[in-house]
Each structure stands twice: as C-alpha cells, then as structure tokens.
Amino acid sequence: MNFFVPVHKSVNKNFFKKWTPEMAYVLGFFAADGYITVNRRGGQYWCIQIKDKELLENIKKVVSSEHKISIRIIKKPAKSILYRIQIGSVEMCNDLRKLGYSERKTKSLAIPNIPDEYFPNFVRGYFDGDGNVWTGLINKKRITPNYIITTCFTSCSFCFLYKLKKKFEHIGIECGKLYKLKDKQCHRLKLNLQGSLKLYDFMYNRGDQGLSGLFLERKKRIFEIFIRLRP
After folding, report:
1. Which residue from 161, 155, 206, 146 is spatially nearest to 185, judged by alpha carbons?
2. N or C: which end of the chain has fewer CB atoms below 10 A?
3. The predicted structure's pLDDT at residue 6
4. Among the listed residues 88, 91, 90, the one whose alpha carbon sits nearest the alpha carbon of residue 9
5. What is the CATH number of domain 21-229?
6. Which residue would you say has higher pLDDT here, 5 or 226?
7. Cα-Cα-Cα-Cα dihedral of 34, 39, 42, 44, to 10°?
8. Which is nearest to 226 in space by CA: 189, 200, 188?
9. How far is CA 23 from CA 45, 67, 162, 226, in A?
10. Nearest to 35 by CA among 116, 97, 120
11. pLDDT, tens digit (0-9, with 9 covering 90-100), for 103-144
C-alpha cells in the first residue's frame, strides 16, 4: 500500500524573531506587499506577491526558503505578471502578529518598535513595496526650468503614514503633505526635493545596511541619475 508523505519545505522559522538588516527589510516589504492567510484546515501561510521576480528570489534566499515561486497572470486592466511566494508556518505567522501584522492589516498597519540601526532597512523595504520616486522638469515655460525629484509612500492606513512622518521629521527628513487620494481608500505621504535626497541617503547609505540584493535597482537608479545630473 502506498502512503502519501507530505513534503515539508525548509525555511528559517526564526527569521522574524531577531532583528537583522535582512529581517527589517523583509518586514518592511511584507508591510507593503504581504499578507497572512489561514485555510479551512487551519494551515497558516505568510505570502508576498510582487512583479519583480529577482527581488523575490533574494527574499527567498535570505529566509532560507525552499518554497516555489509561483506565477500569476493578470489580464485586466493591462496584462501583467505577478510572482508569489507562500510559506506555511504557524510559528512565523505568530511572530508577524506579535510585530503588529494580522490577517486584516490593511487599515491597521503598524510600525513595530524597530531598533534605530535597522529602521533604514525597514523603510527601504516598505518603499520598494508601496513607495515611488519621480524626477522631471517643472516651470517649463521659464528660461531655466527646475529639475526636481519627489518621493512618496502610500498606505490605506493613515495612522501608519502619520507615524512614519513623525519618525522622519525626528531624524531630520523633511516631509511634505500627508493626504487622502481622491476616489481611493488610501493615503499618501509626499517628500519634496530636500526630503527625497535625505531619504535616499538614509535608505541606502546609513549604518549596517546588509543590502544582500534587498533593494529595487530601478528605484535606486532614479535617485542616482538625478543626483548625477542635478546642476
């Protein structure tokens, strides 16, 4: 008689128990693009679903996971490909809950009590998930148009962005507006030129970064091109 023997895939179940640069980054990214799910049989999983496969591969590596990365094709409104990793672990899900991330975290998102040396990693993780950076010219009709850079963070939780704003201001990163997006159930924290440049330095150059490939190259490159071309 043949018996089915479940295959238990390896993962570092202690990953969310101890603060490290890698753990802080993954936690920040999870805050933006992750979720916990519980199935009908009580199985508990934490998942991350994103468009950037290379970054997800690096996240998989730092959590020592053997889990498969699956592919999901979205056809509407425009065709796109999403990559997802789903890791079954009651222990890791409970660790995430202790850090403030429940199954319904969208509007109750928390900023954990992160040691100062790892806060840049957490911010970079959240920025890679739900942040954006833009450069361009304003006042184009003037003889010398202004070349500017702006960054923003988006969340359905006003409280999360408000606390992030206060922490930024405490460490000298100037913030602009915190406002609700029209016709959407989410909020945005915007940083103008000086705040954006300080944010770049904070996310990529401060302290024990432990990058380990844990950053989106395309976002980092926008900052660096702006800095290089800025008059």
Report:
1. 155
2. N
3. 46
4. 88
5. 3.10.28.10
6. 226
7. -20
8. 200
9. 17, 18, 23, 29
10. 97
11. 877 667 888 999 999 999 999 999 999 999 999 887 666 776
What's the confidence (pLDDT) of residue 182?
84
The three-class DSSP label of residue 16 is coil
Per-residue pLDDT band for 184 (boundaries 50, 70, 90) equals confident
222 in Cβ contact with 131 (< 8 Å): no
Number of C-beta neighbours around residue 197 at 10 A = 19
Q: What is the enclosing helix (H) or strand (E) of 36?
A: strand 34-38
- Check if the beta carbon of residue 32 is closer than 8 Å to that of residue 125: yes
* CB-based contacts of 128, cutoff 8 Å, min separation 6: 28, 29, 32, 55, 215, 216, 219
To which residue do tokens 């018996």 refer? Answer: 3
3-state secondary structure of 25: helix
Hey, what are 193's tokens?
């030129």
pLDDT tens per residue, range 10-35: 999 999 999 999 999 999 999 999 99
Strands 69-74 and 146-155: unpaired
| Dihedral pair phi/psi, residue 111, rounded to 5° | -100, 110
